[in-house]
Amino acid sequence: MPADISSAGPISQVMGALVFGAFLITWVVALLDCLARDFDLPDDKWKWLLALVLTTGVGAVIYLFLGRAHGELPKYAPPAEDPPIVPSSKPFP
Question: What was the pLDDT predicted at 2?
């Protein structure tokens, strides 16, 4: 017999919503982190993405503990500054 959520008390409903929210936030963070990382093997990214999509919250927790160690964030160089404008010693023609 399926449980009716309306029969649960308000504290149970709030706790359920908090647990669901925590899993959802963890899943989104893990998904974005996986998309941003460069893995040693190209297939690793697709395997982790597939695991995250199929297992949602549990897969996200596993990824955050195990998968992040296998990838690294790409290194971005800061934008180059424009060279300073040095006045010329020659007069304009």
Answer: 57
